[in-house]
Design a protein that fits this description.
186 residues, mainly alpha, 0% strand
Length: 186
């Protein structure tokens, strides 16, 4: 069980690191697109804005993957851990926490909310950039619109999928008896 707890901590660290990297990616790409710091390319720098929705959705996918791993380990450990001195206390805490998450979901989903809405905002701003910058070539404007719409749609679909998974996982889970576990993997 200690290995699972260590994996849980490492996964949480990786998720937090990815959240920070998302901010850095958005800031660096935005700075390059608007020539902040004197960065100049042979092409119009604003074309880099096309990359923002794709990068945001990709990083969100990784963050979701790590968040899901944390939840899976969090569900597994109290159910399958060997009874010990703190075992009942941990189980009671898990039951209490799940109850609190159902009654006050926003308190426990602030990070998920921030990550998701940051992507929605970035995609919307990229779409608006395609409308505002009239001096851009039509191909670049269309690319900005398509990239932002693709990012918005992809993020929405992932969000709905994640919500469905959370609903499935919110049902109470009890440890099955050893007879019900299928050990035949062939």
């Amino acid at each position: 069980m200690q290995a699972l707890r260590d994996e849980l901590l490492e996964t949480q660290k990786a998720r937090t690191s990815l959240t920070r990297w998302k901010i850095v990616i958005i800031a660096a790409t935005g700075a390059a697109a608007f020539k902040i710091g004197g960065l100049e390319f042979e092409f119009d720098n604003r074309v880099l804005l096309v990359l923002l929705p794709v990068m945001c959705v990709y990083v969100d996918g990784l963050i979701f993957h790590y968040a899901w791993r944390v939840k899976e380990i969090g569900y597994f450990v109290p159910v399958y851990s060997t009874p010990g001195p703190n075992w009942e206390y941990l189980r009671d805490y898990e039951v209490w926490l799940r109850h609190k998450k159902v009654r006050e979901p926003f308190k426990y989903r602030i990070e998920e909310f921030a990550v998701a809405w940051a992507t929605y905002v970035v995609c919307s701003l990229v779409f608006l950039a395609g409308l505002v910058f009239r001096d851009l070539a039509l191909e670049i404007q269309i690319s900005l619109w398509l990239s932002s719409l693709l990012g918005l749609i992809t993020k929405y679909v992932k969000h709905r999928y994640a919500k469905k998974l959370v609903e499935l996982e919110s049902e109470p889970y009890e440890r099955p008896d050893s007879k019900s576990i299928d050990t035949d993997s062939g």
